[in-house]
Amino acid sequence: MRQFEQNGDNKLILRAKDGDMDAFEALVKKYQKSVYALCRRMTGEHQSADDLSQETFIKAYISLQKFKDGMSFFSWIRKIALNNSLNYLKKRKREEPLGIRETRVTENLNSSLQEMPQEQLQRNDMEIKFKEALETLPLDQKIVFILRVFENLSYKAIANFLSIPPGTVMSRLSRSRKKLKTLLAEHL
């Protein structure tokens, strides 16, 4: 099945490289939800994720001629999205005063919780706590956690993706899980 998908992607990529905008648009439609989800998990914000997703596909289109035939398009586009998200987070961290981000995340999530049934409010409250805890992780731990838990990548794939040893991936993941467990212990 995966090989069939890659063959379909390769045909679309070849057409897109020849200037077929419909072919590139088909690739965008196929992967836009996955790219948006990764950017959303990384930033915690809809608008930023939306902007980063668009930027990812623009960069992919501009660099399409450099795409190596036979590679996985999804892996390539995911790498672009991850790099965009990392650059955004680093820039935001330099520019944003301490405490502003946490306040904004809480305000955004709390505003969407008005008038919900009690059970859903409790679930959403836990989701807020988790997102807040995830935001407190150091960037290197947060990335590894997201790639492993949400993107379901193997340790080896994460190591290749980030150009770090697999042991570093395992230790960062372990530290992120311990920190999240400590932060969420009173809510579990």
3D architecture notes:
With 188 residues, the chain is mainly α. The protein has two domains: 1-95, RNA polymerase sigma factor, region 2, helix turn helix motif (Rna Polymerase Sigma Factor, Chain: A), CATH 1.10.1740.10; 137-188, Winged helix-like DNA-binding domain superfamily/Winged helix DNA-binding domain (Arc Repressor Mutant, subunit A), CATH 1.10.10. It contains nine helices and no strands. The protein has helices at residues 2-17, 21-43, 46-63, 73-95, 100-111, 118-136, 139-150, 155-162, 166-184. 20% of the residues are buried.
Offer a quick outline of the entry:
The protein is mainly α and 188 residues long.
Summarize the topology:
Elements: H1 2-17, H2 21-43, H3 46-63, H4 73-95, H5 100-111, H6 118-136, H7 139-150, H8 155-162, H9 166-184
**What separation lies between the terminal Cα atoms?**
39 Å
Largest sheet: none
Structural class: mainly alpha
Give the % helix: over 70%
Portion in beta strands? under 5%
Per CATH, the architecture of the largest domain is Orthogonal Bundle
Low-confidence stretches: none
* Number of E-state strands: 0
Characterize the overall form.
globular
CATH superfamily of the largest domain: RNA polymerase sigma factor, region 2, helix turn helix motif
And the CATH topology of the largest domain? Answer: Rna Polymerase Sigma Factor, Chain: A
What is the gyration radius calculated from CA atoms? 18 Å
Topology pattern, helix = H, strand = E: HHHHHHHHH
- Number of alpha- plus pi-helical segments: 9
CATH class of the largest domain: Mainly Alpha
Number of domains: 2
Report the average pLDDT across residues. Answer: 84
